[in-house]
Amino acid sequence: MANIKSAKKRIKTSARNRQLNLFYKNKVKRLMKEAIKAISEKKENVLELVKTAQKWIDKAAIKKVYKKNNAARKKSRLMRLNAASGKR
């Protein structure tokens, strides 16, 4: 356990940030799975799901949950799969 006051505050802050990071990561992971599944099953709402996933990836990158290149790579993979399926 921390003894210094600022270290105690830092423990609380890091716990809160960890929860937020997990929220964003889980949300992105779930949306990407949904989009990939829709692409493979050739559903009608593919474009909506891909756009939503991209939006949340961008939000996570802005909040520094993902690094910039990691977010770009995730979006690129989604778009490549979408283009390969022929849905635009």
Task: Give the gist of this structure.
The protein is mainly alpha-helical. It has helices at residues 5-41, 46-62, 68-85.
Structure commentary:
Pfam families: Ribosomal_S20p (PF01649). With 88 residues, this protein is mainly α. It is built from three helices and no strands. It has a domain at 39-88. α1 (5-41) packs antiparallel against α2 (46-62) and α1 runs parallel beside α3 (68-85). The chain is elongated and about 60 Å long.
Measured distance between first and last alpha carbons: 54 Å
Tell me what portion of residues adopts beta-strand conformation.
under 5%
Main sheet properties: none
How confident overall, as mean pLDDT?
A: 95
Rg, alpha carbons: 17 Å
Task: Please trace the helix and strand order, writing H or E for each element.
Answer: HHH
Uncertain runs are none
Estimate the global geometry from the Cα principal axes.
elongated
**Strand segment tally:** 0
Counting DSSP H or I runs of 4 or more residues, the number of helices is 3
Helix content: over 70%
Indicate the structural class: mainly alpha
Organism: candidate division WOR-1 bacterium RIFOXYC2_FULL_46_14
Keywords: Ribonucleoprotein, Ribosomal protein, RNA-binding, rRNA-binding
Function: Binds directly to 16S ribosomal RNA.
InterPro entries: Ribosomal_bS20, Ribosomal_bS20_sf
Which features characterize this protein?
single chain; 88 residues; mainly alpha; Ribosomal_bS20_sf; RNA-binding; Ribosomal_bS20
